[in-house]
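Good morning,

Both structures are done.
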Amino acid sequence: MTDDHGDADAIRYLQVDVFAERAGGGNPLGVVFGADAWSEADMQRFAKWTNLVETTFVLAPGDARASYRLRIFTPTREIPFAGHPSIGSAHAALETGRACARAGELLQECGAGLLPIRVGGEGTCRRLFVRSPAARVVREGGDDALLRAALGGMRLGALPPAFIDGGRRWWVAELADEASLRAWKPDHAAILALARAGDGMGLCVFARADTAAVPPPPNPESPGYDLVVRAFPAGVGIGEDPASGAANGLIAAYIAQREPHGALARGYRVSQGRETGHDATLDVRIDGSSAAAVIWVGGRSHTIVDGTIRCRIGDAR
């Protein structure tokens, strides 16, 4: 890539705040353009250096139908799909003019296949929704000893815990109430053991919002919410994720299957990240019902940093 000053070593780099009604409240993401010649090792080194939950590389598509190809890296490994990198990268591709929506959609090529991303609105009001990969329950119930250790005796909610596969593999568990979920001090070593045993991401817990504790939103930048989520992806070396698109997609698929006529069966709003000093807002839309439901997870993003860099980390240059 050659930048506006003719520097062939420069690449375009953005940092994006994802799933945030206001800039600074969501989940940070690094997005790299122009690194098509980099090796996988180069990308991994750069992702380790950024030290963000995920860093993505927007590349030329291999499939002519796709808007672009996306590779997603945590500081320790590449992953096939994640929600917040998909939404943030789509935002960055639109902001930089590297991709244009067709019929209100982008088509992302990634390790999970071709995934559509719905585009609604423009500029700071734009909301993007990625279609979550189809999900299946691998096993259900709270009789797993490692799961019991990871939950640490927390009182459970209406739905039993389940190990779910859908682009990512997570244990999900509903806790009895919002206050307990927000105050919980998890045992990260126990969650890591649980993740390793199932080659999964870790544990994601959720609770239905205590409506008495959720004030009506005073303005559109302080929305209400229906579900509270905390995610602990110990399997990829992360303590707690401020906003988890893929995990929320699995929770939504589970709710759609188990409560097809419930209050959340058509969609809802999620609050996540306050326990880590963030305040993310994710919107979930559910098309269809039960096992046939199609899940869309999305929200707003904000560009925080936009510039060019010259990378001299390892062999990446």
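Second structure follows.
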Amino acid sequence: MPVINRIAAFAEDMTAWRRHLHQHPELGQQCHETAAFVMDRLREFGVDEIHEGVAVSGVIAIINGQGDGPTIGLRADMDALPIRETTGADWASKNTGKMHACGHDGHTTMLLGAARYLAETRNFKGRVALIFQPAEEVGGGAELMVQEGVLDRFDIRALYALHSAPGTPLGQFYTTPGPLMAAVDTFHVDITGVGGHAAYPHETVDPIPAALSIAQAMATIVSRNHNPLDDLVVSVTMVHAGTADNVVPDTAYVGGTVRTYDKGVQAMVMRRMEEIVAGQAASFGVQGVLRYEVGYPPTINDPDATEFAVSVAREIAGDSGVDANATPEMGAEDFAFFQEKRPGAYLFVGNGDTAGLHQPDYDFDDNAAPYGASFFARVAERALPLNTQ
């Protein structure tokens, strides 16, 4: 079964919604205008409950089915990125320095499309909780929602989410049971020496050699300290020091990201970073302080929920249009906080031949929206079937 006919019939409406959202991107928890637009559409559709202000600007809507049954959650993220858009599209961002470069405008649109269909048909028992979440990119909006008790408050038994996938054929799906995306941590190293005139380096304690040595030593954690069969990324992405060519600075900074799946590997990285910073700082006579920030946990798909979600995706895209054993990725996703508490499955849906995510020329392909909306709608109908006693 391909895209649901009723959803295909209002595809132009979804395009209009998506392009409106694309023009008005918001960051982090401050997705108030986006939430207002979402709630206006939900009221038009006739959903049964709307709960606003969740995790600051999130929205949870409830659609009741025909008869009693459990509640499942369908989630879309709403926030954008601090990027200056270069698409030149007629619907390009009107908020300078902000843009939907990760497809969250498309995710929100797909869930709105499913909401419209489900509110019209109600071909299911129980309840569907539509979760429109802020702060996926920064701030962990999913964690805030969990902390606010939304899973217990709405008795959500399982959750499902989608992400657009540039480079994957339009409307095809991929996922895998178990680990799908990595945990993401951030490290900061502050190095303090004694600055002075660059013509008299012997009168200074130069923090720059220490910074460079620390950055190089960080790279050896992957090559020499961990089992090569375990997934691990350590990336130094920032080295900052100095403001003039004739001045030795007082301070330097090294920062970057760590991606892991295993808590033991994560603990090893933290230990080695402490040792590297302390040892290199001592050898250069500077002070070095490591700040290690644990971020999103790994995205771990529940095997049963994933098997079910894959079966639904195959209804939309056919057997050949679904990769159920995709290679795990080292990106991160805060949907993981939901999955720590409830069974859940996270899938990618093909966005065709577009620019990559987090790029200033990326734009969600509106032709993908009916596929995602159909997936969400069928998940509800298959998870909460009417023909059960």
